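Appendix B, record 7
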Amino acid sequence: FRVHEPRRPDAYERTVDSLLNNVHYGEKQARWWLDLAHYADTNGFEADRTRSMWPYRDWVINAFNRNLPYDLFSIEQIAGDLLPEPNQDQLIATGFYRNAMTNEEGGVDPDEAMYHVINDRVATTSTVWMGSTLQCARCHDHKYDPFSQKDYFQMYAFFGNNKFDRQGDAKFGQSKYYEPFMKVPTAEQSKRLMEIKAETKVLQEQIDVQNQSKNAFWKRWTSPNVELPAWVSDWNATFSANPPVESKVDSGVVEISGANPDQVTYTWKQSVGRLRKITGMILEVHPQQSLVNKGPGRSSSGNFILSKLRIKIDGKEHKPDFSMADFVQGGYKVDDCFDENTETGWAVSPEYGKPHQLICWFKNPVLVAESSRAEVDLEYGSKQWVKHSIGRFWVSLTDHPFPGIQVLLPQAVNLRSAGKDKEAAGLLSPFDPANYESTARIGRLEKEAIGITNAIPTTLVLSENHPAQNLRANIRERGEFLSKGQEVEANTPKFLPTFPSSATKNRLGLAKWLTSDKNPLTARVQVNRMWEQIFGRGLVETVEDFGTQSSPPSNQVLLDYLAIKFMKSGWDMKAMYRLIVTSSTYRQSSAATKKLLERDPLNLLFARGPRFRLEAEAIRDSILFASGQLDLSIGGPSVFPPQPDGIWDSPYSDEKWKESKDKQKYRRGIYTFLKRTAAYPSLTTFDATTREECASRRIRTNTPLQALALMNDPVYLEAAQKLAALAFHKQDRKIPFHPGPAIELMFYRATCRKPVASETERLLKLYEIGRSKAKEGAEFHGLFVVANAILNLDETVTKS
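Structure tokens (predicted):
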């Protein structure tokens, strides 16, 4: 933004408009809303595993930037999924309720865990839109406010129809309930997937045309007289294993016995015999009476996992173009034998006790000489499924132009005998030389699509079951999960305006009731929150509680005026912020005279302008901005700025705090990864919440630890160095260096004003002290010491 010409009579208002229309406005406003939503990047509780929720944070930022009216802003978060034909943004908005903590601990009753999640949603709703501690009525009628326990569970019923999946079986392990998530592709990802789909369709149509024009070819391949591959075995082949195992090689067949290592690699070596070109290899595994279920694997089930297969001819490795097997266990792929993941590969459960074949071949034959030798490595490297090696096998080679016919022919013949010639041809068509290029291109496109799909971010959303009747819930006596009492129907508190008879009693109806112009609370609660954000104190100081035990409004008439103005503006949030910050009340000096302090020491009557310490994220952002480091990019996944080692030590996972690279670690505090059980310490020091529950306001403390953080945290030390370097290099090198202009520049960047003479004098003395202690680079070191002090000033971290 830019400050407009001060001589213009409307310069201030034009500057305010620039700020409201600035692309970073949404980030500032989202900070306090994310406290209300208790947004975090982990599930909470003891395990506190990572979740993907940042698309919801981006939605909040974008909603503020496009000035989504507060009624729609509310409705989309409460019930975006229930709107007619909801779009992606409206579904993402329901993540507001998915920010609740999720208990994944062992032994947790999934129904009780879901009960607590729904209680969180009731409490969050009442706090955010009703300014009420409604959760007090969960256990009994509210002692002070007119909420009954029946009112509470009638509100609970609005949220008790949520959709979730049951995963696991409590009879054999843990059973958990998981609510839905959705993929949120970027515009670039969506565009590329559409392009891949269109190109794949064209290529497949070309293959289909090719197949139809070559019926004679396909009939030849699927005829009973088709020539099968002739496989060449070497009865003098050699076998070895690492680590060694007991083995016997008889007529080219290898049988393994004795000890069964957790992981092992077999190596088979043979001559090429009569072959002068090699097109393919077959690995045949056979059952063995001594193995469990007759094998063919040596594991306790009879299964095996071939995690990697390497083919070498005369010492040079050749990766096959095609591979297939007669049977592959669900969840496994033969192609995975040729990647680096040792937990995937070829497995055959539950087809135990049967022979199986794996065939792979090359599009371009490998030319060999009479003396050539082939080597095949079979690696069983899984650490999750140990001792899963093969017990009895042999390997053979071929020069047949289409080795895969060995596996595909039986299937193709069966299809043809059933009158399915097209399907039979479809099995073979990818391996027709005329289709090689199209097939290979389709394969590459499919692989690219899988990569893009796996990279698409996800976010948690809320979804509703189709209700068979009006939503209902049981009152829980004393609020205890196991103590079911009277059943009640979804409804709003009795003492507030009645729920419209024409509205459906679901979350969408609740959202519309909350944002109705007949509801006396929603607008008051929100404008009070906006006032608190700007002045540091609400017209009702207890912004989270408008009940009988709250602080009374310091100006009831003003609160009512702002609420009515807000609704009549069309719930325009930018218009309300503009109204408040262009008021004479806000534009007063924050200086406190003796007379004002005697009359209004706490500024309850707002006789002077606001003065309070910045919020934790804003302190970090402003210091990074002053030092020229702040990365202004908007949106995207959370980042990992520097933090002390050991904070993330967790017995439940190997997740580590991996410090972000380059400019990512200088992004705004709103993007800092938030782990509920190990929050970013610098933000916690300045009273940021752990986001375990809805928080309407943050406390403000003043502790020595905060000054220590500003002077010693690596983030702020680096900022002081960068600020000093920035000021140092601004100096004209043609004249002797003088610290005065550099100190003035640093002071201005941190406080937005120039230092007075007495301040400059003290800072110059500090500069000389720092300069005198430097062994080299004295001028820079002196500026660094001054920068460190300037960034630690109250004025630097205070709105005034």
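Remarks on this record: The mean pLDDT is 92. The longest helix spans residues 187-212.
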